[in-house]
Amino acid sequence: IMRVDIGPLKGKILEVSGVINNSVILVTPRLASYCGFSMKIDPLGDAIVYASLQNCFALNVEDKVFKTVLNLRLYGNQMVEDELYQVAETCYYTDWAAREIICDRNYMEASERTSRLVHLMSLQKREGKMDQLLQNKGFKITKVVFFTPEERIMEVTEAQRAGYEIANTPTRLTLRSSKTAPETYIQQVKGVNMIVLKTSTVFEKKWQMTQIDAAAACPIQQGSISFTPYTIIWFLPKFIEPLISTNQPRLLEVFVGIDGHRLSPAEIAARGYAITVTDLHIIVHIPVGAVGGYFKDDQPFKTYTIEPMLELLWTEGTTLENTRYKVLFPITIPVPQIVDNTVAKERIFKVLLGPFGDDVALINITFPSGVLSAADCNVRGFNVQEHRSHNGSLKFLTLQVPFTDRLVLGNGYTVYSLHMTFGLMAALAGPFSFTARLEAQLLDISCDHANFYVLVKYGTHGAQFQTLLGKRTLSPDLAQQYNARENGTHFSVTVPFSAPDVVFEVRGSSIRSRLDVTLRNPQTGRHVKDFALTCQFYSTLTECFPNGTITTVAVKVESVPSLNPGQLTLRDPNCGPRFSDDRFAYFVFTANSCGTKRKVLLNTLLLRHILKVRVICYYVVNTTYALTFHTRARRSQPYAEAAKGKLQIAMRLALDDTYSAFHQDEDYPLTKFLQEPLYFEVELMTLTNPHVSLELENCWATVDKDGTSQPRWNLIINGCVNPVDPHQVVFHSVWVDARVKYPSHHKRFEVRTFSFMKDQDTMSPQVLSTNVRAQVSNMRLAKKKSINKKIRKNIKKNRNHK
């Protein structure tokens, strides 16, 4: 192959013409594939013209010297004169193999040695004209047989009119075809799709006939390329079956190049390329962004293009006739990226990841607190979906994570962030990962996962108005309950979703919370302003536990004011609510009780219960959960720092798992039902050192207020859950928010309410009404690379449960 470098074009259009016998012939796209020309132009405006040594315009001297003359015309707008250059290139090539095969961008070429014939006739076509040079004892080409793979016979003129170049010299026969010619076909070779052209050219003279077989096979990108965001992997069959005639091929040489230029081993190493030869394939690894390629901001995504070359030399059997195979293989891949489609007011992180090759699959996603499989993410409601491009060659992934999920970091009010690493697997390239860091900021807040936030700006009336929340006037006591604040220009209140002033309504298939706010003139009673805030009801209505326990909450909505939640039952009329009030009914039942139905869908067990609305739980059968961890060797042995001082530690009971509000002293004793969750928080008070960490060593529950009394049930042992506890403690993460400045000073855990048995020996089912007090002791303060002395502390506040 001859290469001509041209540039920069400076925005002008390049036109290439061939010069032969004082005639100038424009190289059109059709003529380029017929005559053996191709061209590449990069984003910088540099062009490379490739031409086969045996192109239509080459002056061939004894198959050793090849001279080609080209006219290059650069033209732009009519105001600037065209630029015209003539380039003459002479190439010397004597190291011919018995068979030479070229795969270029737009054509494929096979050149066969004709030593089996004494003499041949030379046939050449020049832009529709046939020059027949009868010589050397009268042999001439009469027909060409194409195998598609069925036989199809064409006369020579017919084949040339169809776009096939058929030419011969005294020593070689050359056959050239467009890659899109009708007589080509696709064949999969060792898993790689290849365009194949197989022919037999017939030579005749009086009473004599002979033929020469010629074949070419060129790879296409789909099926031979695998890529990740970091690496391109190109697979080429080690032995290309359509070109092999014996069962004893032997590979002699392998060369790698870029843009038609061979690279030395030192250049390959310097560019970070790698080549591997296996029993089946020759595999080339190219880093994305490596020297020799370029990025381009195409729509709808960024691409990376590079044109590697492979040159092989093999021999077959004992014939000692070699085959040289050269393929120039332009590769363009989309660069995978993360697109953040989050709309903050929707309170959902929306992520698009891709594009990837069609052999890529999502394995798992790693979050700061653990690893979830793709199936786990969907069970959790993350809506992981796979999408394909219109031709099916590219794949995209989408993910949606609600701001309310515990994996989302934030202050619970305005700023939310999500960190995750996608673990993916390419069938050819192997595993790789992709990391995303997303952040969303809410500027106009109306509600989050737990509260309504009402912010009122004073207008011309100043603060001379009454505020009604729902149907109640905002009295001083109610203002204190709702954390009212005022600064002279604004006032604000925070109203929990569970507050009695909030009503619930059905919108489509979802339940939403609504808070009506009215500003009223106290003298006239006229409404100055009224509005309503409506937000998604974020509380979990149904929970499905691994042991088969199911809990569900029935909510009284505004449209049925006469409903008494305490009179609701499950399918079995004997299964009433475990707890109810005038707004909620809380049910606890098991998968085999209260008329629950079961159904197996593939590897998923479906449990369904009808309570005028359906309660559905899905359990994955025979699933495997992945767990990752990292270890790091100690740099030094831990040491203790002795010190004296007073520390203040407090334990509180939160209203729910948001830990945004806590029970006050006057709330005790509390009435709780069995298995109802209790949310504890232990805090190291007053200390401002962020490097100090509060650790819980032992926590237990007793019947009496005396923490040393018996019976006693251990909840936390040496910092870990009690392994024999049927309802083990659940630890909750602590993040920075408006209240928590140092997360390491806080520990949070969840305990399911339980009772001690009245008769431990007989395990009588009778349950005692007890005062259960949670004790926390042996709290440890840990400093980086050190552990302070252990401090015992009894929490003096009673926690009464039923």
Automatic annotation (TrEMBL):
UniProt cross-references to Pfam families, sorted A to Z: Ig-like (PF26562), Zona_pellucida (PF00100), ZP-N (PF23344)
Keyword Disulfide bond in record: yes
Record-linked SMART domains: ZP (SM00241)
Residue span, ZP domain: 543-791
Alphabetical UniProt keywords: Disulfide bond
The protein, known as: ZP domain-containing protein
